[in-house]
């Protein structure tokens, strides 16, 4: 298996050209640095003079002094959002250098969140979110072994390309530790780091279920606002994400509960929960890609009524439902909830995706293998 792969955002970055800065964020170790360095040239390493990493004190000092290399068409500023005055620094570099070079800013936290406050960077950048590998990024016709590997090792480049169980466990432990102990400490004022680590340990068992802040509050013995703030911070650091319910006029939909998923689905328990988490990440990647490249407002939601009938996901485009997706580990017959909601909601198409091989239709409902679903919809 090749050690590196061309990432799906490369043509997008090329199309933006020198018109604006490009902000690329995403989870820690998703491959942002490798991707950004590839834009500087083939075989370029972290020692390249146009690459500035704020975590390296020498590099940070050069950037603060504006010691920019001459005759370099691209500058890469990595993790610069950890600098308290980074907005003014980046704005000044762009305003003085935009006519002669392109600027790429990368970070392992939501740059759209951490740019708030201070001087505005509006109209100076395009924001792109880099996701882990997915089936569509691996191959135009992904194999069963591709899907098995994604389920087993997740979509982060290092463990997926290495495919070693022991190294995967070590990588997973180290990544979570660095997010909580390094990124969280650098960007947020949180004193109870050990309690946040305990919170992170509890999240995998809650994948695919409505996340009860009340239950977490009781387990952690802290107040409701504190737990909500911690979960929001973990979302901003790309450790987890939540999706809200979708309501339709003819159903008694739940309104407040939000379901939880992890960016590294290999942390979820094996079986149905992990498969559902993988599908959630694939659909979120699709939503973010369309939003970042086409400007549409995209939302990933779920469908559940007060009688606990549920469909796992609904994808909305400009507030209108495109399709709904239900996850099943086997290629069984159509779930009853799909029939119920197909008759009572304006959702035009329902899919039941699975790990088997059967493919058939029942009116507006298509039962389809997940690999074919990704291929037919041309998901990134």
Describe this structure in words.
This protein has an eight-stranded mixed β-sheet with strand order 7-6-8-9-10-11-13-12, with helices on both faces. It has a five-stranded parallel β-sheet with strand order 2-3-4-1-5. Helices cover 40% and strands 18% of the residues. Helix 9 (165-187) packs across helix 10 and helix 11 (213-220) packs across helix 12. It has 380 residues and is of the alpha/beta class. The longest helix has 23 residues, at 165-187.
Estimate nothing, just give the exact number of structural domains: 2
Summing up helix and strand content along with how strands pair, one would put the structural category as alpha/beta
Instruction: Indicate the overall shape.
Output: globular
Please tell me the overall pLDDT: 92
Count of individual beta strands: 13
Measured by DSSP, the beta-strand proportion falls in 15-25%
Give a quick account of the main beta sheet: strands, pairing sense, barrel closure.
8 strands, mixed
Round the Cα radius of gyration to an integer and report it: 21 Å
| Poorly predicted parts | none
First-last Cα distance = 20 Å
* Helical content class: 40-55%
Please work out how many helical segments DSSP would assign: 15
Order of helices and strands: HEHEHEHEHEHHHHHHHEEHEEEHEEEH
**Strand arrangement in the largest pleated sheet:** 7-6-8-9-10-11-13-12
